Amino acid sequence: MDWIEVTISTNTEGADIVSEALMRQGAVGTQIIDRSDVPDPDKPNGYWELIDRKMLDEMPEDVQVKAWFSTVEELRGLKNCLDALPELTGMDLGTLKISQAGVHEQDWAECWKQYYKPFRAGEHLVIKPSWEAWDEQPGDLVIELDPGMAFGTGTHETTAMCVAMIEKHYHGGEVLDVGTGSGILAIAAARLGAREVLGVDIDPMAVRVAQENVEKNGLADRVTICEGDLVKGLDNVQCEFAVANILAEVIMLLAAPLKSHLTENATFVCSGILREREDEVTKVLTANGYQLFDRMEKGDWVALAARVR
């Protein structure tokens, strides 16, 4: 199938905001290319494989958000939508320059692989694409992840913090992953011992890719992926642990309805929160009966862990 590939130039702060806007416009998936997500090969920190300096040098200076659309009609109003974002968010989102090209799905599937390398996301969890090797160490819990056209490779600060928070705070029970994307967080929970995990996403492409990743990791008996809008329709779902790596606005919308699906003293981990929105999210969570007990920060992003009171 042929796709219309749209590329938006932005900055690190605007990457997720632009990605969300493109998905709402009708994109089947997005990819963020950000030099800051790749560590300096001259300063190895023990968490990543050695990165080819040439690969880093060839990455664009601006952060680029790529999105794929199936029809021209879906692009109508895109420029107006992007132009409105700086005023809506009160943030400098870079140039928001738009470029467009046609692309075959097979060509796309190959081009992003050069930017995706294995890395350690927590003390034990390791995330690797299926085409890369990893020298497994005792205690490693390896997740093979091929994200396809769905956001969520684990390289972005928000996803990496969620993985680390799950490893730190998951101590058993059923798990709900709201906005599962590539399925990385649901798979991480299962790797840490969860026997029943439900991942939900509104994007059918993400659902397909997440299911493929679950099967690739041999976890289809533990992880269920379904299409849905946040927690709507999950009437009989009760869990001891929930995670959501989505934007601050959506977390605030989710806080109240999610609580009815959480058992007493359940843990809720959330990320995708810009530092300047943290106070807003904290107030909404507290008002809805959550007690914050942990916080992580990377770059401009914050992850929070809260317990149902």
Question: Could you tell me how far the N terminus lies from the C terminus, measured between alpha carbons in angstroms?
Answer: 49 Å
Secondary-structure-based class equals alpha/beta
Parts with pLDDT < 50 across at least 5 consecutive residues:
41-55
Q: Provide the succession of SSEs.
A: EHEHEHEHEEEHEHEHEEHEHEE
Strand order within the widest sheet? 10-9-8-11-12-14-13
Share of helix, binned:
25-40%
Explain what this protein looks like in three dimensions.
It is built from 9 helices and 14 strands. By secondary structure, the chain is an alpha/beta fold. The protein has a 7-stranded mixed β-sheet with strand order 10-9-8-11-12-14-13, with helices on both faces. It has a 4-stranded antiparallel β-sheet with strand order 2-3-1-4. Helix 5 runs parallel beside helix 6 and helix 8 runs parallel beside helix 9. The N and C termini lie far apart (49 Å).
